[in-house]
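Hello forum,

I keep getting stuck at the same step: I have a sequence, I want structure tokens, and every attempt I make locally crashes halfway through. Rather than fight my setup again tonight, could one of you with a working pipeline run this one for me? It's a single chain of 470 residues.
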Amino acid sequence: MEMFDFSKISVLVVGDVMLDVYYKGAVERISPEAPVPIVRVENVKHNIGGAGNVCNNIVNLGGNTYLLGFVGDDDNYKKLSSLLTESKINNFLVETIRPTVTKMRVLGEHQQIVRVDFEDKIANYSTKDYELLKKNIEDTIDKVDIVVISDYKKGVCSSELCKHLISVAKSKDKKVIVDPKGTSWNKYIGAYFVTPNLKELKDISGKEFFNENDSIVKTGLEVLDKFDFENLLVTRSEKGMSLINKKEIYHLPANAKEVYDVSGAGDTVIATLALSIARGIDKYESIKLANTAGGIVVGKLGTVPVTKTEIEESFYIQDNHKLISLDKLLIKLKDLKEKNNRIVFTNGCFDIIHKGHISYMVKAKQLGDILIIGLNSDSSVKILKGESRPINNQFDRAEILAAFNFVDYVVFFEEETPYNLIKAVAPDVLVKGGDYKVEDIVGREFAKEVAVIDFVDGYSTTNTIKRMKG
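Reply #2:
Ran it on my machine without issues. Output:
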């Protein structure tokens, strides 16, 4: 979808860069040395954290980014540098005598047991460090469309640096979005958007209040008056988000989502917001996108980014009940099967819908009660048909399919074949078109029956494209 095309957007991210390390394993007994669980480590994973995670989200959403900050001359920086290169994140990091900030988490059975932080208690970076960082800002500012300050209160975002960065950005007509930390917000004066969570808003206001609209708005307006920000976007956990500025108030409910891990959610929100605003999407749609992205990432374990496909699918699914994620489809299927509905499954690219497609799907629906279409994603179509395909993107194709009353659900799959999708759905009837032999049909072992429906002669997307080309 054009709305989600961030390929021409570049974002400068300045802030505290970190390495996140996860030790994951099984807990089977308590230590004889102390009343603590013993974790038998089965997997070790290294992720880009802090301001780097903002960049990782930007890249995974299809944008371009430049990361500026401080690191140490140590093994953790070497690992982090490798991850940044692998993720195609442009970076100009200043090596200092301080260690690379590293957070190590130990998880047993998906439960975080302990976090160990490697950092200086007070990160006193030198004047030379900051001067090098300022030079990197000035060398990079003309290459980007928008600026993000990702402040984790680890020393990079000093008052002087933030004021310098905002001044340089405004002189170049670049908007600045801030993910704040601490209670020294004077350094953010002049920012276009500041995105505190509920605790951060309480901290800066110096008072306690309930997570209710009136309290959020009253406190938010006081903060706006004090610091001269254009917009305040307060993230409110289960209450969603609130946009507050001097002209308007906008409350956005939270997306219902099972929460596994909130670490990195703020990074995802600010990355999506920055890309959307730089793309020219209005504030309300930008916030809606950021809210959707945040809802996705809290369902993941660890500091991992949201992807463009995930946000497109989730954003679109909100408005079309027939386009459904596999997880939600399986929940619905459990109920449908218990009520003895006969489930029919077929799949295809359905790039340019023609008479043959419609005839085929109508006949497929006649074989049962519920017709599920497994739709090849754009990347899957390219594998099958080549780089020039699809003609229509996956969401346009899905919307057309969903418009037919004989189609009940549409679900995407990314692989070359729908083998895993058919295995999960386990339909009563698996339908294929053309001259397939039953023994050659992928996923047949997971269906109770297999049906082959003849195509209508003379109709195919390939032939349609040839005729269009003359």
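The domain at 2-306 is CATH 3.40.1190.20 (UDP-N-acetylmuramoyl-L-alanine:D-glutamate ligase). If your local run keeps crashing, start a new thread with the error log.
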